[in-house]
């Protein structure tokens, strides 16, 4: 089972850049999308289905052109859950989950902390999300949470850890939360297979950051601990260039 996570930074813009052709070539069984920035009536759903994904579920934000998540699947899930039931999270369209026979996959778009108000919002979200997942894992122990976490975990995950130590996304408090989240039962699947530096999933549009690989690794496929023995491969796909992010992939047995 091949699962991809991709912050497309606008699904309509990504499609114009060849996203659907790429999707057919990459051919995941499931793809989790973040920042779709569109409602279903704005998306060419027939083209999505013709690309091999008859089952597609969209959870846009209430605010137009903002946030939103989706999951596209080749296989019909047993159940789809839109949001978390926590109103302020669901207003911004940040979580969607599909349940299959023996595992579940969530697409997550965790807020960024672009200013002090949003940073406070991010920390509240992180705390509430931790509580939500702690309870969810009791009923769904085999859980993969794919998405844009907007946090670099370790210094190896960012091109300039010294100068970015006071920037949201690499603040000590954010990193400590992500570290704690993983230690409460999740595996960073990319680092499970790859310990090398200079592997990133997001680059600023400024100053040739992507061409010079001055990036951040903020997109993850985190697998719950019971899935450890089923992990087969995890990679980053920087050749896909429909967004300022690139896709990340995990394969499970």
Radius of gyration: 17 Å
Strand content: 25-35%
Write down how many β-strands occur, each being a DSSP E stretch of 2 or more residues.
14
> Structural class per helix/strand content?
alpha+beta
User: What about the largest sheet?
Assistant: 6 strands, mixed
Choose one word for the global shape: globular
Give the strand order, joined by hyphens, for the main sheet: 3-4-2-1-14-13
Spell the H/E element sequence.
EHHEHEEEHEEHEHEHEEEEE
Which regions have little confidence, pLDDT < 50, spanning 5+ residues?
Answer: none
**Percent of residues in helices:** 25-40%
Mean pLDDT: 97
Distance between the termini: 6 Å
What does it look like?
The protein is an alpha+beta fold and 253 residues long. The chain has helices at residues 11-16, 19-26, 45-50, 87-91, 116-139, 172-183, 189-193; strands at residues 2-7, 30-34, 55-59, 69-73, 79-82, 95-99, 104-109, 143-148, 186-188, 202-203, 215-216, 219-224, 231-236, 248-252. Helix 5 links the parallel strand 7 and strand 8. 42% of the residues are buried.
Provide the fold topology.
Blueprint: E1 2-7, H1 11-16, H2 19-26, E2 30-34, H3 45-50, E3 55-59, E4 69-73, E5 79-82, H4 87-91, E6 95-99, E7 104-109, H5 116-139, E8 143-148, H6 172-183, E9 186-188, H7 189-193, E10 202-203, E11 215-216, E12 219-224, E13 231-236, E14 248-252
Parallel strand pairs: 1-2, 7-8
Antiparallel strand pairs: 1-14, 2-4, 3-4, 5-6, 6-7, 8-12, 9-12, 10-11, 13-14
